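User: Show me a protein chain along with its predicted structure.
Assistant: Here is one chain, sequence first, then structure tokens.
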Amino acid sequence: MGEYRLRCVSDRSVQPAYSLACPHDNSLLRTDYQARQIEPKSLPGIWRFLDWLPVQGIIAKAEGAPLTYKSRGLAKELGLENLYISFNGYWPERGAKNPTCSFKDLEAAPTMQRLLERGDNPTLVVASAGNTARAFAHVSSLTGQPLLLFVPEKALDRMWTTSIAKGVEQVTLMAVQGDYYDAIQIAEKVQSLPGFAAEGGARNIARRDGMGCVMLDAALNLARMPEHYFQAVGSGTGGISAWEAALRLRADGRFGSLLPRLHLAQNLPNAPIYCAWKGLEAESPCSDMFDDVLFNRKPPYAIPGGVKDALQETRGEVYGITDQQAAAAKKLFEQSEEIDILNAPAIAVAALEQAARSGSIEAKDIILLNITGGGLARIKEEHTLHRLMPQITVSHWEPAVQFLEGKR
């Protein structure tokens, strides 16, 4: 089991088990696991990495997990000899069965299990641009855990589950007039009320360590860490997670001593991490973009343990990708690998293509490309997708609180 202590990144001080921030300087907290070497368990999904997950038990039916395989099609197109893909979606022929077609399944399961282990049964509050909310709704259907979701109106088409309606009756969905950041602000007001619990976003160690299983799975398959890691990001939490997992693998001693170089990608013009890293002035947000899942107005960039630290320690790079580049990369991936992907990972494919063409990666380099979602067309062939409908639409927090008080 994942025995651990929770430490501040900046001063290494030990904090209470369910804390979300260091009280001294607001830095991220990080799990310091008792197990110094990872020993995979005979358990389903990501639970095989239980030594490095901050939970004592598992949700057995939550079987989402990354699939690592060596690319042939895309690798040939880009002239890469050692391109590995972490496919985090639904592709049963290869063994990928993430039920919401997203790597958010890797976050939701340990986060929910950790909440259940708290024992006070609060309603979990989650703000999301769609994919995260969908993953939490699925796990809620497995556990019966009360869940309150805040999702922007324009992202409601992403709110579906393969569970029938009675399986998600404990889920309250509120549509927000605004973007993801507006949803976060309303959620922060509500989660401070008695009986509600903050999910925590990037500050939640269960979310980060769950996403870190992408790196763990790859390292175990390759018997080493990759030299490069590519991912599209909104908040950048996935990049932090890959870095933290790599730090543990380095300390393990069996997977190499060099940390993978992080290559993070954002969708222009809504690219605050790209602008911050390049020293550019951020452009005015555009409401129409290739994938708005990737837009977070206030990512955890400069805080201790955040995105900037991850990039600096790994000699990382950030790419700005246009809608046209992303659309072309999506088509390239789907034709060469023969599986559909969501829009967000197409941004990462475009960044990989850019790096290969520019020579910043070599043909023989060992590369891991995180496809953070895919197989939506494939899952529709086998399952009926049930839409989750909002109970109310709000533009600020007061109507949300009034609605919740009326339900009590």
